[in-house]
Amino acid sequence: MDHFLYKNGALHAEDVPLSCIAAQVGTPVYVYSAATLTRHFGLFRQALDWTDHLVCFAVKSNSNLAVLKLMGDLGAGMDVVSAGEYLRAKAAGVPGDRIVFSGVGKTLAEMRLAIEGGIRQFNIESEPEMRALSQLAASMGATVPVAIRVNPDVDAKTHEKIATGKSENKFGIPISRAIEVYAEAARLPGLEVVGVDVHIGSQLTDLAPFRAAYRKVAELTGALRAEGHQITRLDLGGGLGIPYRRDNNAPPLPIEYGQVIREAVGHLDCEIEIEPGRNIVGNAGVLLAEVIYVKQGEDRDFLIVDAAMNDLLRPAMYGAHHDIVPVIEPGLGAAVHPYDVVGPVCESGDTFQKAAQLPQMEAGGLIAFRSAGAYGAVMASEYNSRPLVPEVLVQGDHFAVIRARPTFDEMLARDSIPPWL
Ligand SMILES: *Cc1c(COP(=O)(O)O)cnc(C)c1O
Q1: Could you tell me the domains of the chain?
Q2: Which of 37, 131, 294, 417 has the fewest CB atoms within 10 Å, counting from its CB?
């Protein structure tokens, strides 16, 4: 459930009509609902209330400082994958001991920054990284908590570009070699082994792959303890999917996901960390756009809108679907018309949806791309020199711009022409 509903014939974010935001901020613009974010975070917390836990928001899904502040104030930890994300989490007021550092290619500079600023744990993804972190931490006179990310070789049955738990993926160490790698970790200076980490992919719509992966983690935990390792924490990653289409089977709920965790690893008496991103923020955001032209093609009509692939990349990158809805509620039984909804960017890939069923639209009409809160604004670029898309956060009957649209002057000022030209 989210808080984007029609009220009095107009689509609202909570109590704010989206048309008001379009009028004041312009389009395209991302709009997030604080109530939806709060609700989704609460569902994960509730799903794990049977044990000690920390819900670490996956910052890469939406890294706006206001979103991070809201999550952090609710008690969320943060899962970061770069120095930039680490600094964003800190700037949003999240203490280092609630920040987990994941990612396959952490540089020495990134690891140093996190050690100096405070860190809950590094999730180690390879032996070279483990040795580099050990050397760095020891040279700084520090001992850092680590979990090792294992690759359980489980098929997450999701889009190939966001599956991470198969042996052919670049993530983690093969679970078959874990005992050996943990033995080395225990011998290395500067590292304190605290847990096991796993993350098998994103937009999972079935619990079975989670169950399979978590059972393997449980088995490994037993084996590691038998070897004398103190495993007190399990980081079970993110990845629970969301319904991108209103009309089909909804993915499992956080409470059901929490039950799978309990069944697989509950007996181990570990503190549980999870790293949901998409499930918290995906349906807490829409991308609002305006129709520039309705163009009649030979065999179809195009809705050319002022949002494009540079603002919302998922359809072009993953063939992803976002429900598109009109901001003015269509009357009961109003005729629908198929439109190919496209952006102005000079690529045929800049197509959001073919034959979207919408009421008759006109230039100046507003539409909303639903489920756009995760992996939307964070992937935006200025391709075609379109200013970076702004973001707005709604809470109740008020809203704030949480990232302003740059002016053309600001955009141009970031480049410089060398004196010898
Ligand atoms: C991307 C990622 C997540 C978040 O995945 P969602 O599908 O957004 O929940 C969590 N942990 C790691 C290590 C990731 O790479």
Answers
A1: 4-31+283-413 (2.40.37.10), 34-281 (3.20.20.10)
A2: 417
